[in-house]
Structure formats: C-alpha cells, structure tokens
Amino acid sequence: MGRLSGKRALMTGAGGKLGADLARAFAAEGADLVLTTRTEAKLAPLAKEVRALGVRAATVAVDFNRDEDTDRLAEAAWAAFDGIDIVVLSSQPADPAMGDLLSTSDDVWREQQQAVAGGALRLLRALAPRMIEAGKGGSIVTFISSTGIDPIPGYGAYGLAKGTLWLLTRYMAAEWGRHGIRANAVCPGMIATGGSGAASQEAPPAAMLARTALGRLGRNGEVVGAAIYLASDESSFTTGQCIHVNGGRF
Q1: Who is most buried in 30, 92, 101, 234, counting CB within 10 A?
Q2: Are 235 and 179 in contact (CB under 8 A)?
Q3: pLDDT tens digit sequence for 11-43
Q4: What is the pLDDT of residue 211?
Q5: What are the angstrom distances between the C-alpha of 216 and each of 175, 204, 211?
Q6: What does the mean pLDDT of the chain come to?
Q7: Across the chain, how many H-helices and E-strands are there?
Q8: Among this protein's residues, is 158 annotated catalytic?
Q9: Catalytic residue among 155, 158, 171, 229
Q10: Mapping DSSP to helix (H, G, I), strand (E, B) and coil, where does residue 142 land?
Q11: Contacts of 143 (CB under 8 A, 6+ apart)
C-alpha cells in the first residue's frame, strides 16, 4: 500500500467497471484522482467512495468526440491538484463498432479513431508540455486490446483505433522519455466482468479458452495490478512496453 502516495492521477473511463476498479485501487495506493467519463452522474458516487479512502477526488464529464471537452478536461485536471503525475487512459468507445472492412461506414471509422486515439492524443498534447515544464516526469498508462495487435474479423474499426493508440503510446515513450515521462500499455485478454476489449465476455467459446494457457477468464483485479505497477516508481526503467494480461493466449 502507498505505492502511489503523493501522486496526482487523471483517470479516464471511470464510469466503467474496469475504470471504477482502477480508481479504487489507485486511491488505496494513495493517489489523488481526477475522475472522468461521459456522464457526471456516474462519477459522484465513485468520488465519494475514493475520498473515504483518504485521498482527494475531482470529477469532470467529457466526451472525447468533442475537442472542446478534451481541452476543458486538460485544463480542469491540471488545475484540480496543481499538476498531474499519472494519466490512465482506460476509456472505451460508447459502442465498439462491429463490421468488416467493406461494410463499415466512413463515419464509424472516424468515430472509433477519435474516441480511442484522437481524444487521447489531443489530451496528452495539452498535458505533456505542462508535465515537461514541471520537471517531475510522469507515467502514462494506456489500455489497448488484442484486436489492435492481432486482427479479429468483424472488429476492424475498433481494432485499428486501438492499434493507433498502441503506436501512439510508443511514440510518446520515444519522444518524451528524455523528460522523464514514461508511456506504457496494458492489453487485457478475456476478462470475466466489465473487462476491456472486444473479446471480453462472461461465457467465451471453448475454442477461445483452449487458446489460453491458464484455461480461464481473467479478473479485473489482475488487470489493475499491471496498471499500478506501470504507474508507480516500481517501473521507473520501463517505457514503450505492453503488458499482456491475457492468461497466456497463444
């Protein structure tokens, strides 16, 4: 406990099950939190819960499809606790679009890219200069998907957006590392409840489990542990990397 004491973290996607679990775990480790999702009503109970753990919490409702919302989030997050040390990007599109390459509309391609990667880039382009000027370094943790690395037919728009986010993570690591800012990704596999990624479900096909070395679904807590490691000083010599929390998928 206390691995994130004194750290100020911005956490997107806090309205989802995984995002909420991340928020609770980061708070338990001592991080002050700026919580964001699309709907303010989802944030108030979680903010109250993490404050009870002895940390500060602020909330900002934001839609990453709106540039003005993203700009407002960067301003509000930095002002909330006079700085940000950790950015966790766990938000998901409102609807991870399904459809093959030929049937997916142009609008869906654009929406998925903006919701997953475009908003993240705009947010970090606003925050990184402030983090660099502050001179304290920092940690960026993104959440990608197996669809962004290995194609799953029918998830082209979503997978391409997640693949863009993964490449963005590596670019941030390469360009901002000299300022002490690290950027890494977590790639969950099949997670039992509220998991991240197109393949997450309660009762996966036997064929999917047969390709998982541990032969079972994962749990959110197992994903959260990877994120805390990447956010904390324990991973101070780790950047540009992806931790696959997938039970040994092959």
Answers
A1: 92
A2: no
A3: 999 999 999 999 999 999 999 999 999 999 999
A4: 86
A5: 38, 9, 10
A6: 92
A7: 8, 7
A8: yes
A9: 158
A10: strand
A11: 13, 18, 88, 89, 90, 185, 186, 187, 188, 196, 227
- φ and ψ of 175, to 5 deg: -90, -30
Distances (CA, A) of 129 to 125, 137, 204, 237: 7, 11, 43, 21
User: Which residue type is seen at 198?
Assistant: A
CA 181 – CA 199 distance, rounded (Å):
31
Strand partners, 54: none
Give Cα separations from 86 to 108, 194, 212 (angstroms).
Answer: 30, 23, 31
Cα separations (Å) of 240 from 119, 143, 175, 235? 20, 13, 10, 11
* Integer CA distances (angstroms), 116 to 74, 88, 97, 200, in order: 16, 13, 12, 17
Amino acid letter for position 228: I
Cα–Cα dist 31/25, whole Å: 9
Q: What is the DSSP string of 102-128?
A: TTS-HHHHHHHHIIIIIHHHHHHHHHH
- Whether 56 shows a pLDDT value over 80: the answer reads yes
- Tokens linked to 125: 């382009």
> Cα 200 to chain center, whole Å?
16
Question: What does the alpha-carbon distance between residue 167 and residue 185 come to, in Å, rounded to a whole number?
Answer: 10
Rounded to whole angstroms, the Cα distance separating 193 from 17 reads: 8
Sign of torsion, CA 228 229 235 240? negative
Residue 219 in tokens: 């749990």
